Amino acid sequence: MEMSRRDMLRASVGVGAAVWIRELPAWTQQSSQRTRVIPSTGEAIPVVGLGSARTFEFGVTSSALLPLKEVLRLFHEMGGRLFDSSPSYRGAEEVAGALAQELGIHKDLFFATKISTGGDRQEGIRQQEGSKRAWGRDTIDLNQVHNLRGTATHLQTIRQAKEEGWTRYVGITTSGSRQFDEMARLMRSEPIDFVQLNYSLAERQAADRLLPLAQDLGIAVVVNEPFNIGRLFSAVRGHKLPRWAAEFDCESWGQFFLKYLIGHPVITAVVPATSDPEHLVDNMGAGLGRLPDERTRKRMEDFFDGLD
């Protein structure tokens, strides 16, 4: 009988589904969260962040809010900072913002959001102000143009907010390789601090062009969809974690996928989304211990490509 990710984590972490994690597993205490520097300022942020697409959304029941609150609590307790959201994520900003304020951690986190509209400048400004209200914050740490919609208009809004002190960093995002050409053009022509893009063991196109370009231009890189919308776990179903994964302190498939990304020196952070406290603990483990070097990353690619 095959074990699900949840079952595998229960076995390794030693907690049941109905019991919140109050004492973190011993392996999480081996070191502090690894950080990477934002090239434009030198500020360091932890490499494992937290996304909110399809997880922190309106419509969840009151009982479903409890694990979400626990996810945020554990994320903060384990040294996480970068929380990524968007006004287009069906209320995720409001849900997460309310929970973060209840926990008293909303000002500790590195709040990243987006202007996500094809509308005019005023609509972008309304979204920007709504994001600040949702988090009870005067300042957005990172504001990004979502999926390159209305880029020229909304970059102007975000830059003005930065000049006025309401936003600290400017960025652009994509979740599809079809936009990589346009993203490369903007990276060369626009003064931006961050790019956010899709990259995983199953989608490696960003490494061919965008990552070297980001390195050359001094632009921070955040990876979204690091599990390829769950497809990576489907690909390894029924397969055991290779023994050599222990060489880079890898305890699970989730960490295997995340450490592959973090092992690339240009990646500033990854933002896996989850509503499960056990998965959160597992994901955060990817920011601890050793990372695969270039040779090992190639071995990981060959292993993944060779799966049945």
Q: How many structural domains are formed by the residues?
A: 1
Main sheet? 7 strands, parallel
How would you name the CATH homologous superfamily?
Answer: NADP-dependent oxidoreductase domain
Taking all Cα atoms into account, the compactness measure Rg is 19 Å
Structural class: alpha/beta
Text of the CATH class:
Alpha Beta
CATH architecture group name = Alpha-Beta Barrel
N-to-C series of helices and strands: HEEHEHEHEHEHEHEHHEHH
| Number of contiguous helices | 11
Tell me the span between the first and last alpha carbons. 18 Å
Structure, described:
The chain has helices at 5-13, 62-77, 92-103, 121-135, 151-163, 180-189, 210-217, 231-236, 253-262, 277-284, 294-305; strands at 35-37, 44-46, 82-84, 110-115, 140-145, 167-173, 194-198, 220-224, 269-270. By secondary structure, the protein is α/β, with parallel strands linked by helices. It has a single domain (46-305), classed as TIM Barrel (Alpha-Beta Barrel), CATH 3.20.20.100. The strands form 2 sheets. Strands 3-4-5-6-7-8-9 form a 7-stranded parallel sheet. Helix 2 runs parallel beside helix 10 (277-284), helix 4 crosses helix 5 and helix 6 runs parallel beside helix 7. It is globular, with a radius of gyration of 19 Å. Residues 1-19 have low confidence and may be disordered.
Short account of what is shown:
The protein has helices spanning 5-13, 62-77, 92-103, 121-135, 151-163, 180-189, 210-217, 231-236, 253-262, 277-284, 294-305, and strands at 35-37, 44-46, 82-84, 110-115, 140-145, 167-173, 194-198, 220-224, 269-270. By secondary structure, the chain is of the alpha/beta class.
